[in-house]
Amino acid sequence: MSHGEGGKGVSPRLAGMRELEAEVRTCQLCRLARTRTNAVPGEGYVRADVMFIGEGPGYHEDRQGRPFVGQSGEFLNELLEIAGLSRERVYIANVVKCRPPNNRDPNPDEIAACAPYLERQIALINPHVIVTLGRYSMAKFFPGERISQIHGQSRMVDGCLCVAMYHPAAGLHQASLADVIRDDFRKLPGYLEQTKGTTPPPVAVVEQRVKAAEEARESVIHEPETSAVVERAETYTVAPPVEAAVSPYNMLDEGVTASPEPAEAKSQPDAVRKRKKKAVSEYKQMSFFDL
Questions:
Q1: What pLDDT, in 10s, does the model give residues 61-84?
Q2: Cβ within 8 Å of residue 168, ≥6 positions away
Q3: Are 54 and 167 in contact (CB under 8 A)?
Q4: CA neighbor of 56 nearest in space, from 14, 118, 142, 123
Q5: What is the Cα 9 distance to its own chain's centre?
Q6: Could you tell me the CA-to-CA distances from 236 to 33, 41, 267 in Å, in that order?
Q7: Of 2, 5, 6, 7, which is closest to residue 22 (Cα–Cα)?
């Protein structure tokens, strides 16, 4: 078992999240790896009751390697306070882990390439409530719906209560939505209350979702238009990963003292890496609900 400061052990759940975040920071499975500054795995408390899932990193997130640190992040912090929550006690991630160029919408193949990372995060955290922020994360749990019609509403999906919310950026771009979003966040304590005493989804369901996501990834990452990363041993230049790969929030109640994550990635020489195929069989399976 690995150990943190003070000689106390790191839990399997936290160790699994550290491993996943390290994979994300060095991932080269889709075209977004070519244009990012830093991948943004996510951050938060690994035993969080609530998990928030946005769309993808923006400019500031790409620079710092952390989710929701720009204006949308400031508004999200306000919304969390309205709901009686804090960043220290929730987990925040995105559908895609790298910034699409010019903040364009993520493409379906890019979402598929990232999907196993998100499924593994959900499995490791095992939240009572998942809050989708914006239409791309909403589509994962509320397919075929429109955010304007179902915002603030909940639905059970594979044993987890999912709540559809507008992305905080919508309130910044359209002032009339800001109060709507605030009102929706006021409902979160009630949704959390509903989940008290509920049981998590069966391990088989979780593993099936991870497997399905990996199969979907395999169907796209070898396509030339998605990425030249996997099939050809061609060299290319990528930005170095953020030096601190683990959010300090992940350390809560785990017996580990964390160093603050830097606001900016420290300047390092660009690393030259080779594109290699990474088979699904290399993924280390785990029983998530034994963590």
A1: 999 999 999 899 999 999 999 999
A2: 68, 72, 73, 75, 76, 79, 133, 181
A3: yes
A4: 118
A5: 25
A6: 10, 22, 19
A7: 2
